[in-house]
Structure formats: C-alpha cells, structure tokens
Recover the amino acids of this structure.
C-alpha cells in the first residue's frame, strides 16, 4: 500500500502537468484530474468492497487490480502521447482526459478495501487493518511528491 499510495499521487502530479498541455490551463487540468481521480477512486472502492467478501477471493482480486491499474496507466501514457500534438476543443479534451484518468483511479481505489480484507482475519481486525492500510497508503502519498519533483 506504500507503493500504491505513492504511485497514485505520482499519477496525480504527472497527469496535472500532462493535461495542462492538452487542456491549456494548469488550473483546469488540476480540476479535471482531481475530479476524475476522486470519482474513479470512489467507484473502485465500491467495486473493491463488493469483491472483498472473503480473504481467498480478495488476494487474487488485489493482484488483478494492481496489474490492471498498471496496464491502464501504460495505455493512458501511450494514448496521450499520440493525441498531444493534435489538441481539439476544450470540451472534447476534458472528456478525453476524464476517460483516460478514471480507469487508473478506479483500479487504485479497488485496492484499499481488498487490502483491508486481506489483513483482517476476523471482524474485530477490520478497524486496525484499515488503519494500517490507510497509514501506509498515506505515507506513500507523502513520499511521492518529493520523488516526482526530481523528474
């Protein structure tokens, strides 16, 4: 979850920078990135919690979610690199940006409830497991801006 949190914030910073080229405004790019990521995280968490019924099913779902998130990110970078030279209207670029970012955030959001379910052996373990997952994820998100700033 440390790496997952760091990668999520890395994406937020990087996509704000990339989208400012596509959307023409860093303020607009940040707003679209933030709305897309928060929406994707919420949808992913809802689906992840539905899949987190048992520890046995949560482990492969967690692994698949991580791999799918990496694939979505790689696909997004390829897609944007091909589309950046030809900017179109602001509305179409906004929709394109949201369509690119939501899948990345969706898979990232699904990992949280799955990780909690993997750590919680019993119902009584849910709160401490959630706290540990949240703490490691947040610590990763704290470290990421320092690393991203070096690029």
């Amino acid at each position: 979850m440390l790496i997952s949190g760091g990668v999520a914030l890395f994406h937020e910073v990087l996509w704000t920078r990339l989208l400012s080229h596509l959307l023409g405004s860093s303020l607009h790019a940040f707003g679209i990135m933030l709305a897309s990521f928060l929406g994707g995280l919420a949808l992913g968490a809802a689906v992840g919690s539905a899949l987190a019924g048992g520890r046995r099913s949560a482990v492969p779902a967690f692994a698949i979610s991580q791999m799918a998130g990496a694939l979505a990110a790689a696909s997004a970078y390829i897609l944007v690199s091909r589309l950046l030279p030809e900017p179109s209207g602001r509305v179409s670029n906004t929709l394109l940006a949201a369509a690119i970012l939501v899948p990345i955030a969706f898979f990232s959001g699904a990992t949280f409830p799955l990780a909690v379910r993997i750590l919680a052996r019993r119902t009584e373990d849910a709160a401490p497991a959630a706290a540990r997952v949240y703490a490691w994820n947040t610590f990763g998100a704290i470290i990421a801006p320092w690393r991203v700033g070096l690029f």
Observations:
- The chain has one domain: 2-148.
- Residues 2-148 form one domain.
- Helices lie at 2-23, 26-51, 55-83, 90-119, 126-148.
